[in-house]
Amino acid sequence: MEALRDGRAEPPVARDAATVVLLRDHPVEGLQAYMLRRVASMAFAPGAYVFPGGSVDPRDGDAEIGWAGPAPEVWGRAFAADDKVARELVCAAVRETFEESLVLLAGPTADSVVDDTRGPEWEADRKALLDRSQSLAEFLGRRGLVLRADLLRPWTHWITPLAETRRYDTRFFVAAIPAGQQTGDVSTEADRVAWLRPADAVERARRGELAMLPPTLVTLGELAGYDSVAAVLAAEREVQVHQPEGRIIDGEPWLVLPDHLAENYPNYPNG
């Protein structure tokens, strides 16, 4: 951290990444978000509760992907990205969500969605995406599926602090779990999954029961202001860019949130 401050080191380049907050309406508890707890052996955010997501794969932007919904340039305007990066982000969002939860935002036509992704053939496809032996375009093309970009909504944008050794430029999406589909505890990067009310998750994080990085905590706090999936998807959002700052405070490393967020959310120890 001191080397960056003194100009003796350059920060690592932040990798483009996509995160999807999967939502559902529970008949008793109301709005819930799907979360995974990262295994303790992970190099980045071990033990933290997160949403499905990950880095862009270079093949995510393949032009032959069947596409329904807002064009890449629309997503580019929402996320301040060029058309190429915007296409990659949407495709990464769909791919990572399937890899980490079994939820697939795609269907046989532009107005339909796959209703069940369980079974050995789907699992074989999921693993082939994970080990990169097939691309998202190959997967969808072979199954005759169209990516449903219209099921996603842009939500927020977070950039990892300059002081971190692993840095991500992450765009957050929200989406409802499609009718008929079920999440599966399939991610090798997670040891626990749960559907949680956003307000409950925030409170548990503040009590120290759930470990979370600032982007997750702040996003849940925002979602706690909505009472249904429909309300979230209908929200008119101007995507803001947030980048915490790494500081040494009383000899300890801390992540300090931007001023417009710091009033409502505590600072978090770095690492």
Automatic annotation (TrEMBL):
Q: Does the keyword Magnesium apply?
A: yes
Tell me the cofactors it needs: Mg(2+); Mn(2+)
In its UniProt record, a GO molecular function of this protein is: hydrolase activity, acting on acid anhydrides, in phosphorus-containing anhydrides
Keyword annotations = Hydrolase, Magnesium, Manganese, Metal-binding
Looking at the record, the residues that make up the Nudix hydrolase domain are 13-218
Magnesium in keyword set: yes
- What SUPFAM superfamilies does UniProt report for this protein, alphabetically? Nudix
Designated name of the protein: NUDIX hydrolase
